[in-house]
Amino acid sequence: MVVFWEMTMNLKSMLAAGACALLASSAMAAGPVVQPGGNLGALTPLPALFGALKSTNDLGSTPFLDTYTFSLGAASDIYGTVGEFFGTVDFSGVSIDGLLPSLVTETTSGIGFSFTGLSAGNHVLYVSGGTPAGFSSYTGSVYAVAAVPEPASLALLLGGLGFASMLVLRRSK
User: Fold this and answer.
1) What is the distance between the alpha carbons of residues 136 and 53, in angstroms, rounded to a whole number?
2) DSSP label at 57?
3) In 3D, which of 140, 81, 79, 142 has the Cα closest to residue 114?
4) Number of domains present in the structure of the chain
5) Helix ranges restricted to H, the chain
6) Which of 25, 27, 52, 123 could form an S-S bond across to 33 if both were Cys, CB 3.0 to 4.6 Å?
7) pTM score, two decimals?
8) Which domain holds residue 140?
9) CA torsion angle for 100, 105, 108, 110 (degrees, to 10)?
């Protein structure tokens, strides 16, 4: 019985090591995969990759809440995805600084999300969910694009410039 247990644990360790190697090698072309608690750096239009390997012997689902920090140089819209890499991961949500996404697309294996008008500065991305007993992992990407002003804001700006121009022309006459 002890020999069987040791063989099972060795097999699990080898599978976990292989999964980590596969996760790392698949992301080499796009850059490093940031682990939970890590810093994604300054977000740009090029995706920043993140992910985690989960291992548990607990029966039932084991909850997790992983965090990733990042910064924005200017007000931006944030787009991203998070999904199963292998095994089963039940995602319960994604948020940034406690704010819920403006758009969420859920699939059987992950979540697509977006946040509009996020201010410049440092932020925290939260990924939450649960995993069953055994090995599983997820991976995701997130990127930023400059926020586009709303049409009403542009109309207000142009109206203000027109009014100021009219005042200047009137005073010069």
Assistant:
1) 6
2) -
3) 79
4) 1
5) 2-26, 151-172
6) 27
7) 0.69
8) 2-172
9) -60
